Amino acid sequence: MPTxxxxxxxxxxxxxxxxxxxxxYLNHNEEEGLLxxxxxxxIPQELVERALIIxxxxxxxxxxxxxxxxxxxxxxxxxxxxxxxxxxxSMNGLIATINxxxxxxxxxxxxxxxxxxxxxxxxxxxxxxxxxDSNTNTTQGTLFLLDDRTLDLTIVSVLFVFQLIIAFFIxxxxxxxxxxxxxxxxxxxxxxx
Length: 193
What we know:
- It is built from 5 helices and 4 strands, in the order βββαααααβ.
- It is an alpha+beta fold.
- It has one domain (about 5-190).
- The radius of gyration is 23 Å and the shape is elongated.
- Helices cover about 60% and strands about 10% of the residues.
């Protein structure tokens, strides 16, 4: 089902863009709910660019957050404390994509930065502490996926790259979300004027 679009005119160039109706740059007055049929919305150029980013990334970021909620639910079954914290943070990210709340997305962004840092720590641990030593007790548990250090390092490095890409998407989306001042810079015009 295609999303419904609304015409947006950029001031002062009078260039026209199409934005989805649920874009936070169009639905900026929370007391009135969805805007009452304006024919044109005048938005400064830099805000329209950010609104287009939100239209482009909204589905991707929402899918990332939904996957994170499912993984956090699994972690919750394993460990109530860690799983509960990650589940609340993941729900913050999902709610932020639905309601376009910058403060909730900020919490989720810091969580993503923590995930990137933990992936770096995993790489560091594998480089520093994984080596074949025949004098050690082999019955101790290991953190590694396989017995091959190179394969472990490759897998953890790929996970790091994926986490970095996810964090990039979340940061780009967070930067595009409107602040209160941004919402005030938008004017509505009707065709009857």
